[in-house]
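dude i think i finally got it to work??
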Amino acid sequence: MSYFIFTSERDKQNLINRMEITAKLVGEYAVSPLVFGDAEGGTEIITRLKSMPEIEEAYILDDDKDIFASYVNDSSSHEYHPFNPNNSRVEDLSIWDDAYFHILQKITYKGDDYGSIYLVVSLRPFKERLINDLRVLFINMLLIIGISWVLSVIIQQYISKPIKKLVKTTNEIVQEGNYDIRVKNQGTDEIGQLYASYNKMLERIKLEKEQQQKYSKALEVSERNYRTIFENSIVGIFNIDIKSGKLLQANERFYEILKLDPSRLEQYTIDQFLSKKERVIFLKTIEREGQIENFEINHKGDIWISFSGKRIKGQNSIDGVIQDITDRKKNYLELKKVNFELDNFVYHASHDLRSPLRSILGLTNLLKHDKPSENGIELIQRIENSILRLDNLVTDLLTFSKNSRTKRDIEEIDFKALMEESLEGVPYEYKGDIEVSVEINDKNIFKGDKTRISVIINNLLVNAHKYQSSKRDKKHIHIKIKTNKKDMQFIISDNGEGISEENQERIFDMFYRASESSDGSGLGLYIVKNVVDTLGGRIYLTSTVDKGTTFEVIIPNNQSI
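look at this
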């Protein structure tokens, strides 16, 4: 009988120890969900207790003893609600009643309390084991009385000693928390198999413990890194509730940029730093695209701020950052002003230069009519060529200036008529004996800036004529124009001099000449690229020396305008 009492007390203590360990493990796993308010994660953790059918109810309580997550076994018939404020048993560490064992443990991490774990354990399996043990004990007592003199040594050797060894090992593990302890296997019989199973169980517990420690350490490192980044970031970091617009969290840099008081966090909403119109744009962009990037606002008249944020998946809040771009914005505005003034100067200076250039050209023509000497005619021709080059440069500068000064004028374009004008406008001295073929497929209506598209076509067309190879007997230029609802494709190919690979990288640079024989300003292709960019298009170049060059230009169709 004393053995039965001992066994029942031991089983009871083992149950207590096991439930305390279980509660402690669940509590350690529950720290992260409690810290981050992840009720779904808490439920997922506590639901794992379904593998222990004796646990009929389990609850994770927050620091206010409110239910944070719960699990109730399908077979539970327990009617006691653990959160009845009139029931003082909730405050007990552990308690037994007729049918259940209750255990309540605080959830702590680094000395801080985050809540409690409460388990309701059915004693039915425990009592069934006691009854079975009592029956076995009664039978064993009868057997022992009858044949004790035969089996006493065997029982001592093969039953009592191994069990005591297991109990001792279990107690050592519980007391020391050392899951490296093992029992030595002394055979292949049932006891040996029990030892082997026991050791396997310890190995599994050890692995789970190591995994738990690994996760805990990773969580600790992750949390520490996050706090370090959050607190020391050079940009403002914030978290905002989408529905209420309430500021939920922000770092010190956020308050510094917006000149807000951190102690008034609960009073701040998105309205403190966004106007009504800006808020509508900000939230609609988040709702439509899930994120927003570089949303610039002018805060209190003297501070420029850039907002970027992303909606947190599965949550009704936005994580984002802000940057003080006041200096960058001021520099941009100053640069814009300087560029405008420079462009204005170029425009007026170029415009004013044309009149004296035309006058000088007129004078050279008069000199030609005065029948100068042969040497004089050569000098006059040189002067005239230099003036024409300068006039072309001035023309290019005016074209470049107009591109940045004038607004886009969208209209429907007739490419057949446009190409006729461009071909007629090619200077006579460049035309020569060149075969030009044009293929136009403009069944789809195309709307765009006719003036700027003319600049692109004219420059590329003149270049295709100008840089033909003198080595070829048959010179040709092929032009293809195709429109669709999305864009216009302009392709011009020639079999001229071609452009080397090293020159192709810089061909669109200002004042860059790819050909030594070029007498141009070096602005033509730069202007083409600038105009293409202004129209939101793309330009591609394919060229081989002595074989020819192909330019492909794609310009968006503005049908909706």
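The chain has three domains: 2-178, 233-324, 407-561.
im so relieved honestly
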